[in-house]
Amino acid sequence: MRTAVVFFPPQNGSDALARIASALATGLERAGHQVNVIRADKSNPQSLSSYGYIAVGAESRSFFSGQPGEGVKAYLSSAGMVVGKRSFAFVRPRGLFALKTLQILMQNMESEGMFIRYSKIVSNEAAATATATQLKVE
Predict the structure, then answer these.
(1) CA within 20 to 30 Å of 104's CA: 49, 73, 74, 122, which one?
(2) What φ, ψ does residue 107 adopt, rounded to 5°?
């Protein structure tokens, strides 16, 4: 199945979320899916309409914040037809409020009509690869 792994890089310049997104994509490719990794910090959002499954990842803005990175809701609302798309929400733990960040990310996705099948706090690349085997993409 055609799958997108969309991630919202943090403002601090860390590439940990990018590595987690790549590891998730690698695990999904091993399961036989066609995967594209999309860095969502561009001014022109890439259309997600043609994907059958969408994984969306973020991390909190700061150590003491539960808010995901800026632009998540705006990006999803302008990324084409995502209503009814099966999806996976994931966050990288950063600070005290990873669960709150995941909750807000899921609310943003659901407000666009995405159907969240699974959600998880993913701390590293090994956990991301293992999580890819648990996803029910089809």
Answers:
(1) 49
(2) -60, -40
Strand order in the sheet with 115-121: 34-39, 2-7, 53-58, 86-91, 115-121
85: tokens are 């798309």
CATH code at position 84: 3.40.50.360
Note the pLDDT tens digit of each residue in 72-92: 888 898 888 999 999 999 999
What is each CA distance from 66 to 18, 61, 62, 96, in whole angstroms? 19, 7, 8, 8
Burial of 124 (0-12, 13-18, 19+ CB in 10 A): middle
Q: Is the model's pTM score more than 0.85?
A: yes
**Tally of structural domains, the chain:** 1
Sort strands 53-58 and 86-91 into parallel, antiparallel or unpaired: parallel
Rounded Cα–Cα distance for residues 30 and 40 (Å): 24
